[in-house]
Write a structure and sequence with these properties.
The chain is mainly alpha-helical. It has four helices and no strands. Helix content is 79%, strand content 0%. It is elongated, with a radius of gyration of 23 Å.
Length: 107
């Protein structure tokens, strides 16, 4: 009889591996930290638009560019930077841990 609740032995080995739990903890913590930082940057900018338009409307120097433009560019650059940071960690530390987990589970 096929038991649908039965766990694959490979899955059981992976779930029993302490490195798997370390990987999940590190990845979740880092992901939520970056999410919080991104939300702070994005919603902070939106809050400035909503509640302090005169601040963002201040011209920079004698030109027509307002302070809101470089701040918006900063939000975009910040987004690209934290994405790069996540990819770098994922391709380094997380991939290394995943390979170790799979190697140990296949023994």
């Amino acid at each position: 009889m096929n038991d649908p609740v039965r766990i694959d032995p490979m899955v059981a080995k992976i779930e029993a591996n302490p490195k798997y739990h370390e990987l999940r903890r590190k990845r979740n913590t880092f992901g939520w930290t970056l999410t919080a930082l991104m939300m702070l940057a994005y919603y902070g900018y939106i809050a400035l638009i909503a509640f302090n338009k005169p601040f963002l409307a201040q011209p920079i120097g004698a030109g027509v560019t307002s302070l809101g433009i470089p701040i918006a560019l900063g939000v975009i650059i910040f987004t690209i930077a934290i994405t790069g940071l996540y990819v770098r960690r994922a391709n380094g530390e997380y991939d290394r841990l995943t390979a170790e987990i799979l190697q140990e589970a296949s023994k």
